[in-house]
Inverse folding.
């Protein structure tokens, strides 16, 4: 899934650390004058206090920037909050806090910070973009779209604003608007990868598969090693029933990332549907080697062994499934079937009884009837 890039919008840190000019008080090497009650000047002390406050603020901003650069966001947040106590009218400090909160995953807090920054600088497009990002990640895609539209208003040539808008429109299932936004992006940047991918996503949701395939193929030309694009293209081929092209696309992607378990699973599933069980098993096993505690992969392997009536390997695989997912009744259900296939009836009954207990906990009436019948037949 495409995500707006937060790293490009951290104007808070980069701009907030611009040092505030220090007021000049005396020339280099000049000794301070001797003070007395007679020559007391309150303006001098006000300037001195301001100088101290300014120095402290600059120090905090420098330190905060260092923490951000080292990704120590907790300390960065504390530091910027301290800086805020010295200057509560600095929009860049608020935007810096918003950025840090977003990096910490505190999106509602990030929204609040960016809203305060916008109150101080209502025509800053970067703040609206960042607000849209945080609103979108908070689940408020409607307000996120409004924020991105305002970012576009103040920076109509900035492509990232349109990309952010397109993403939240797809999430809202406003596919015609999303497609229109993609056209606007491609007008500004004809080779924009995000626009092509978003366009394909919107077209796929509208079941315009051929058009989606066209955009995905163009995107892959730009980024031939982009695995999500390859997977999306394979899914589009599956949608039009072109299983051969889907499989070829996935296998090509697998040559790029041979240790991508998602690719291995998708290839295995297609091969399994096509009846090429040994080849499917090979890809499932590759995926299992990468994700040894995946119940889904373990179950698919066990199911193939059971369908081949290879009961011994099915028993081993289903037992492993019950270890990985002890509260999943499926493992016990078909473990019983495999055990029965080997003539180990008492063990099969014990497995079915466990499956029945778990199916009852889930309220799965269909499976309860199925396992009850197996127990009756075995008795």
């Amino acid at each position: 899934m495409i995500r707006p890039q937060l790293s490009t919008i951290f104007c808070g840190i980069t701009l907030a650390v611009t040092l505030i000019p220090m007021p000049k008080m005396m020339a280099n090497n000049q000794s301070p004058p001797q003070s007395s009650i007679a020559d007391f000047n309150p303006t001098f002390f006000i300037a001195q206090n301001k100088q101290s406050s300014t120095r402290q603020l600059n120090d905090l901003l420098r330190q905060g920037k260092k923490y951000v650069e080292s990704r120590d966001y907790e300390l960065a947040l504390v530091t910027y909050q301290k800086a805020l106590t010295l200057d509560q009218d600095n929009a860049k400090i608020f935007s810096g806090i918003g950025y840090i909160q977003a990096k910490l995953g505190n999106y509602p807090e990030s929204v609040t910070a960016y809203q305060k920054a916008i109150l101080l600088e209502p025509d800053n497009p970067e703040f609206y973009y960042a607000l849209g990002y945080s609103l979108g990640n908070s689940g408020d895609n409607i307000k996120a779209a409004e924020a991105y539209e305002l970012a576009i208003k103040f920076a109509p040539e900035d492509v990232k604003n349109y990309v952010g808008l397109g993403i939240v429109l797809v999430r809202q299932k406003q596919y015609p608007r999303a497609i229109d936004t993609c056209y606007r992006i491609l007008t500004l940047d004809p080779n924009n990868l995000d626009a092509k991918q978003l366009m394909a996503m919107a077209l796929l949701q509208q079941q315009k598969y051929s058009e989606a395939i066209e955009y995905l193929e163009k995107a892959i030309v730009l980024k031939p090693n982009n695995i999500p694009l390859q997977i999306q293209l394979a899914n589009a081929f599956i949608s039009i029933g072109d299983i051969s092209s889907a499989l070829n696309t996935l296998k090509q992607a697998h040559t790029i990332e041979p240790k991508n378990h998602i690719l291995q699973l998708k290839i295995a599933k297609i091969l399994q549907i096509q009846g090429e069980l040994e080849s499917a098993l090979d890809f499932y096993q590759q995926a299992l080697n990468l994700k040894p505690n995946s119940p889904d992969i373990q179950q698919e392997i066990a199911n193939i062994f059971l369908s081949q009536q290879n009961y011994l390997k099915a028993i081993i695989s289903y037992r492993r499934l019950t270890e990985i997912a002890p509260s999943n009744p499926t493992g016990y259900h078909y473990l019983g079937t495999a055990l029965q296939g080997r003539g180990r009836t008492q063990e099969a009954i014990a497995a079915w009884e466990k499956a029945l207990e778990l199916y009852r906990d889930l309220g799965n009436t269909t499976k309860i009837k199925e396992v009850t019948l197996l127990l009756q037949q075995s008795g």
